Amino acid sequence: NFQCASFTQSAPSIRECPPEQGLEVAFAGRSNAGKSSAINTLTNNKKLARTSKTPGRTQLINFFDLSDTTRLVDLPGYGFAKVSRQLKEQWQENLSEYLHERKCLAGLVVVMDIRHPMQEYDTLVINWAIEVAMPVHVLLTKADKLKKGPAQATLLQVRKSFKEAGVNDLVTVQTFSSLKNAGLDQLKQTLSGWLTG
Ligand code: GDP
């Protein structure tokens, strides 16, 4: 039940994350891709992921409990043009460490604006997940911004790129719209599969 998600804590680094009990699913994405909206749509809670957008908290890992043993995790958004090199390096170190070392992480959702899919950092994050055989679900969100044809063409193109890279057993892709609640069942199904192990 994704509706009972509640904020539990923020962590500035992997050392301050909650104990590795149960299973969690993490959300990553470029800033402004629609990650907070997707989390809010999934949990049917318009305010849930807002906390993580407060400037200064953007580098934190935010945890939302679904039950005693399952969690959603909102990872820091990336791709800010104005961020210093030092902060970018810190972000890379944190995220890479989280994906490589967090044993209770069952899968990673990577949220992309369907109009700008597979940017440099998206690929970087997905590659870190693939390195540790972590399943990835790509959410091509804001699908309502494109007509059906172009949205479907983007979906097929992104899927094809994973097939050509030989990682289509680990990576799934879907279209999504927080505005229209479209693709919600497919997202829930993927996450439920991961969270029940
Ligand atoms: P985040 O920075 O990745 O958390 O992005 P947000 O969820 O805050 O969304 C960034 C902007 O895109 C906001 O203005 C949202 O209202 C808008 N947005 C997010 N999802 C959708 C969507 O599915 N459709 C449309 N049309 N706009 C969206």
Q: Can you describe this structure?
A:
With 197 residues, the chain is of the alpha/beta class. The protein has one domain (2-195): Rossmann fold. It is 34% helix and 22% strand. The chain is built from 5 helices and 7 strands, in the order ββαββαβαβαβα. The chain has a 7-stranded mixed β-sheet with strand order 1-3-4-2-5-6-7, sandwiched between helices. The longest helix is centred in the middle third of the chain and has 17 residues, at 85-101. The chain is globular and about 45 Å long. The two termini are 16 Å apart. The structure holds guanosine-5'-diphosphate.
Compact description:
It contains five helices and seven strands.
How would the blueprint of this fold be written?
Elements: E1 6-11, E2 23-29, H1 35-43, E3 61-65, E4 70-74, H2 85-101, E5 105-113, H3 120-131, E6 136-141, H4 148-164, E7 171-175, H5 184-195
Helix pairs in contact: 2-3
The chain binds guanosine-5'-diphosphate (GDP).
Task: Fill in the keyword field for this structure.
5 helices; alpha/beta; binds guanosine-5'-diphosphate; 197 residues; Rossmann fold; seven-stranded mixed β-sheet
N-to-C span: 16 Å
Estimate the helix proportion, in percent.
25-40%
Quick one: overall form?
A: globular
Secondary structure: number of strands: 7
Low-pLDDT parts are none
